[in-house]
Structures are given as structure tokens and as C-alpha cells.
């Protein structure tokens, strides 16, 4: 794949909808906030806002990789309910506003024997809702998230009369017990079934069996749930499996048994309860093999197909069947998992997603309108510095308009013009951070291609929207056009910061600017606004008129300016000699390197020793001085000279940038030209 087609694939990565949720990052099972993306709504897709999501024991098993096939990061959740917000062009069964849900699967092959038999749950190519691999090789993310997108055929309609929170668990627990009753003919009125275990699955099994007109015996290891089973859930009988007399009296009385227990337990006493040709159906998943006596029928069952899941849901609506739940907030999920491991829940945890799963309270989200293209973007795309992580979404000269703010954001509101530069995070406590120089924090987080606090990779501004901590957001002056102001967030601060930090900002001082490109032309503008005398230093005379007549430089030098400059801002990234530049400095003069040549430069030491000259580097600036720079730009109407381009021109722009064929900065018209691909 060529460099520039890869750049397009990077941009394609951003043409998805940003999502926010909770994820497990490793086998510790700890769940933490997670930013990710879901695909755009396809023509057969339904997108819905997630209101509630049940917590299944499978979520716990997957979180800690108990079954050995978990892929991280894992966004759990397959008992997902909400309200439709968008449907694809070919969707016929759902409309915006419909109450819907998604259960254990989001796709299957559609053509194998099990699929044609409406048993997609047994399709060898069935795709799990959480932790499965989708057709595009991405990992599927579950319902511990703010929204969901799924093919129409795997969406379940939720009856209007059922409360969504208590209905959510039916999408797994409900169909897990309903499906084997129907499939094995244990749904006939007057039949007698047993339910082993009165937990998340068992209590729902009792409710469905009673709705079918079936006699139900609950089988448990202790007597403490007797009243719950008989009085609250309406079971007909209760058996203590450890009581030999009770078990003996019930031998041969049951047509079938639904065994919901996941712990290792003896099967023989349960089999004895069955009639001749009775069926023991295992729906719990013990982590160790059970001893299986060689008589009577033992079968397994796993959730149900889409058709029978909808039938189950319709029956639930008809008989007002819901799960007994404990509604929890998103920040309680880790505690809920600990309690679930101890079976300390009656009977299902359900996360109040819509009301409690919120992005970080100090975050600002904004619609990206424009994003500048920096030469660093090209370096990172090509991995010239050896630190790139793919997929890479470039862009750190990002401007737009605020669309949403967190609950504790105080400095910004919806509608504000804002920007993000090269940084989105730092430790906040080291010497550099306390001095307002977060750019030198050893834990600083770059806007793209770096690991964020939640171990996700940061994505830059070649995208439709951006979210960032308030402390790293820059307010853009109302009088500046956003397209031409965007490059200031990198190019502007890169030249402004060293002028200020090294005291080269005093009116009347004389500075040189080496190179008249994206950085150099902005350096001239800021230096003139500070009242400095500016000499542009170039290898050829071709830019003399540009420097003096357009940008307002005082002089243009190729040679013959020895010992005249207080400081020099060197913006050149190509390999070049430093000796002639040092000769231009006065004694104690400062040569500040802001360009980044790929190869080391030779450093002449004698001029430094004999005239106390200094050579130092500088990299962008801290957030405080970036805001000062932008404010100064607003005061003096300083912007970059730009070439505005469409998103589909980016690869060509990168080729031209590599040849220095731009005056002086490319800026992508994101809002008007970055559109999803068909």
C-alpha cells in the first residue's frame, strides 16, 4: 500500500461515529472509560441510543478471559435496549423513536442450515455482539456504551408496555430459557418442569414457564429461597437438592429440567427427577466438565435465534414478564462485577447507561471545521521518527465550534470558537507542567498517535469532531477566520514560544528568520507585531520580494550581515550548515532551532566559546503561552497564509508538501468536504 493511499485509509477510520463507553483492557477485568468509534449507519443498519444494558455472567467470564478467547479492549454487554435515532435507506421494519434491543449476536452467514432454520445462534459464522470479529476485521463492541449500530435483521422490537430497564435482561436471560422450552416441546400447558438455580436465568425461567401454563418446581441447594420461589415468582413446588427425602419423593415427576447453574454440581440426582424420556437441558456454563451418567437425555442450549427471541419478547409483552433487576450507575460497574462473582445480586444488574454513562466531566467536544497540515503529519504518516502507531489519524492544528461540554467545564460553552494544538494531556504536577510548559512534560500526550489515559490511541483533527480536556482547549478570537488561524496552533506557537522564552521579543531587537515556509512566514508576522527588526535569511534570492513587500521583513540576507542579529529562529528541516548562521549573531546571540532535520547537524564549537553564543532547541509551547499567542494574533490580525483544500486532495497535498510546493500551509476544509464514503 502506498503512503498516500494509507493516508486515505486513515481518514476512512475517522468516517465513523465516535462512541463512548466502558471497556476492559486486560485480564484484570477492571472496567474503565473508553473512547472508540462505530461504523456509519449503512443502508440496512439501525442506530439507537442505548438507554440500559444488563450485566450477564458471560460479561464477567469474558472480562477475565475465563474461556481463553477474549480480545482486548473489550466493551461488554449483550442485553442492550434503547431508542432508534437513525435508520439506513433500506430499513423497512424500524423508524426513529422505536423501542428496540440487541441481544447476543449482531450477524451470521444467513445461508447455512442453522440460519435457514432460524437458529442463527448456532451458525459457525455467527458474530457476537461483544468481542466478536466483524466482517471488516474490527472487534465488535457491546452495550456498555452510549449508542449501538446493528443490521436490521438482528434488532428486536421491544413491546411498548414493558419498562426498558427490566426488559433488557430478557435479550439474553429470557431467550436462553425460552428457546429450549420451545425447541424441546416443554411449552405445553400442564407439563411439569424443574428449574435448577434461582438466579438471573432461573427466575426468568419460572416466569416464562408459568405464562405457558406449566407446572414449575424450583430446585435449589438450600431452603432460603423457598418463599421467594413460591410466593414472589409463583412456582408450584420447591425442592432442596441436598434433602434426600424431598428428592426421592420427586423422582420421575418432571417432563424436563432447565439447569441454569454455572458452578460445578452433581447431575445424577437431577436426572432422577425426570420421567422416562425426560430432558435435562443445560443452559448454565460450568467452567469444569460435569460427570454425566449414561441414561436419559442431556442436551445443551445457548440463547435463541432472532425469530424466537422476538417471539419470546412478544410473549413477555403479552404477560408483562420482566426480569427482577438492580439498577446501577455506570461508575458502579466494577463493584457490580465483584458482587456478581459472589452471586450477590437479585437477580440481574442493569446499567442506567443514558443517565450515568457520561464522557469526562472536564471534556469539551467540538465540531471540526478546519485542520492544518503540518510537516510533522507527513513525518508521522511515513514513520520517519520511528514512533508512529497505525491506524494513524493526523492533525494537530484543529479548529471548530463547541457542541457539548462536560458538567464541570467552566471556561467554554456551546457555540464557542475553539482549537486544539499538539497536546491533549500531561501529568499536571512535574516542574514543566507547574511552569506552564506542558509541552516538555515527560508524560505529555500528543494530539494523535499517542496513548491516552485509558490506553486508547489519540486521534487527530483529520476528523469530523474532537473531544479534549478543557485544560488543553484554546479559545479562538472572534475576529480571526478559523481556516487561516488553524496553523497558528502549531506553526504560530512554535515560533512565538522561543521569542518570548529567550527574551527575543523586546521592541527594537534584531532577529533573523531562517527559511520562509510554514513556520518562517508566521515568525516574521509575530516578530513585526512585537516591534522587532526582522531579517529573512535564505539560500536564494527568489523570496526577497515576498519577504519584504508581502510579509514586512526589514531585510533579506544571503550573506554580508555578520554579527548583526540578537537572535535567529531557524525553521529549516533540511540538513544545512550552522556555521554561517552563527556568524550572523552578535556576541551572546541565540540560535534557536525549531525545524527538525532528519540527520544530525555539525555544531561548530569555537564561535560558541569565543563569543558566548548559544544554540538551543524549542518545541511548540505550553497551553498558557499558546493562548497568549492566539490572543496576540487576534489583536494584530495575524493569520497564516494558506491554501484551503478539500479532504479528497490530502494525498496530493502530502506529495506537494514533500516537495515544499505550498505557500505556506495547507488547511483541510473538514466540515464541508470530509464526508463518509458510500
Number of helices: 23
Specify the helix fraction band: 25-40%
Instruction: Please tally the β strands and state the result.
Output: 32
Low-confidence stretches: 1-15
The gyration radius over C-alpha positions equals 33 Å
Give the percentage of residues in beta strands: 25-35%
The average pLDDT score comes to 91
Shape: elongated
Structural class: alpha/beta
Largest sheet: 7 strands, mixed
**Euclidean distance between termini CA atoms:** 21 Å
SSE topology sketch:
Elements: H1 3-14, E1 17-24, E2 31-38, E3 45-55, H2 57-63, E4 80-87, E5 99-102, E6 105-107, H3 113-116, E7 127-128, E8 147-151, E9 156-157, H4 164-167, H5 173-183, E10 192-196, H6 202-211, E11 215-220, H7 226-232, E12 237-240, H8 244-249, E13 254-259, H9 268-271, E14 274-282, E15 297-300, H10 306-319, E16 325-328, H11 333-341, E17 348-352, H12 353-356, E18 363-373, H13 375-381, E19 398-405, E20 417-420, E21 423-425, H14 431-434, E22 445-446, E23 465-469, E24 474-475, H15 482-485, H16 491-501, E25 510-514, H17 520-529, E26 533-537, H18 544-550, E27 555-557, E28 565-570, H19 579-584, E29 585-593, H20 606-611, E30 614-617, H21 623-636, E31 642-645, H22 650-658, E32 665-669, H23 670-673
Parallel strand pairs: 10-11, 10-13, 11-12, 13-14, 14-15, 16-17, 25-26, 25-28, 26-27, 28-29, 29-30, 31-32
Antiparallel strand pairs: 1-2, 3-4, 3-8, 3-17, 4-5, 5-9, 6-7, 18-19, 18-23, 18-32, 19-20, 20-24, 21-22
